[in-house]
Amino acid sequence: MTTLLDVDARGTQHCETTALGVLLRHQGLDLSEPMLFGLGSGLSFIYWDGKNMGFPFLGGRVRPFDLTRNLAARLRLELLVRETTSPRRAWENVTASIHAGHPVGLQLDSYHLEYFTSKVHFGGHVVALYGYDDHDAYLVDTDQQGGAVSTSLSSLAQARAARGPMTARHRSFTLVVPENLPSPQGQVVPAITACADAFLNPPIANLGHRGIEKAGKLVRTWLQRTDDPRRDLPQAALLMEKAGTGGALFRNLYRDFLAECTGLLDSGHLRTGHRLYAEAATLWTETAAMITKAGESGDEQCLLQAGTILNDLSRIEYEAMQALSRLEK
């Protein structure tokens, strides 16, 4: 027996906003992917390295699921989150939502999904489940992963049960749009200023504009950081450009969010932020290209150029967020 809901599985770029879009459109709230990302104050930066890591990681967004929590709080959505250590209870939580007519979001490790094109463990991946039968689960993932896809129930169970960095305990979630939904337009300024404040005042040097500056210094040493530069450096660049970021380490998404906001608000500060993030997006793509070239050629000069660009990016994004932080003033 097959149980399927009719959902809008349009092509999108980032996993968490893809799932959020499916859940919200099913209830009649249709927001663009950049608007979902921006209202969730999703932009950030982290330079992440550690003894148990094979190679450093550059991240461009807030932690998995923080975006969902931020968006729910800002739009007063009812966010119902279920977690459990029991695989049986976890599946019952999902099927109960489907039988009630609601698609459900899942956080899991993408490594175990059979359709996934890149076999890399990532425990912060998010999909929307809209149906199942005796053998398969029917999901909506990013456009890059195929959009409306399916995977076996056994592989889904493995993905949900995985443990490791960024994983959750069989997390599933649903959203309910309230009758008195706040105007998304009215929430733009609080979302932007909250994101700017976090970026400008990071608690540690690995985050925000300070993290980008740190990356500018450390990326120059990456050829010495790896025993396989032809593998590790292009992989790092690929994660910046192609791994569900929307390109340019999420800066394309935030640029497009700010562009959409300029059609809603007349603000010089907003226009300045948009202009600077358009510049930053181009430079992030250039940085990724330099890192790839360094890995393929072994030319340290490429990493020196990448470091210089990252130093510029730290300044540009700092100036952009300074302007955006003034929106309420």
Key phrases:
single chain; alpha+beta; 12 helices; 48% helix
Report on this model:
- This protein has helices spanning 15-25, 33-39, 66-75, 87-99, 153-161, 188-200, 208-218, 222-225, 229-241, 251-262, 268-297, 300-325, and strands at 3-4, 43-48, 57-61, 78-82, 104-108, 125-132, 136-140, 148-152, 172-176.
- It is of the alpha+beta class and 329 residues long.
- It has two domains: 3-30 and 78-176, Cathepsin B, Chain A, CATH 3.90.70; 184-325, no CATH class.
- The strands form two sheets. Strands 1, 4, 5, 6, 7, 8 and 9 form a seven-stranded antiparallel beta sheet that branches.
- Residues 14-142 form the Butirosin biosynthesis protein H N-terminal domain.
- This is Butirosin biosynthesis protein H-like.
- It comes from Actinomadura viridis.
- InterPro entries: BtrH_N, DUF4872.
How many beta-strand runs?
9
Q: Which regions are unreliable across 5 or more consecutive residues at pLDDT < 50? A: none
First CA to last CA: what distance?
58 Å
Order of helices and strands: EHHEEHEHEEEEHEHHHHHHH
Largest sheet: 7 strands, antiparallel
**Binned strand content:** 5-15%
- Mean pLDDT level: 95
Structural class: alpha+beta
Number of helices: 12
| Radius of gyration over C-alpha positions, nearest whole angstrom | 20 Å
In percent, how helical is the residue content? 40-55%
Number of domains: 2
What overall geometry do the principal axes of the alpha carbons give?
Answer: globular
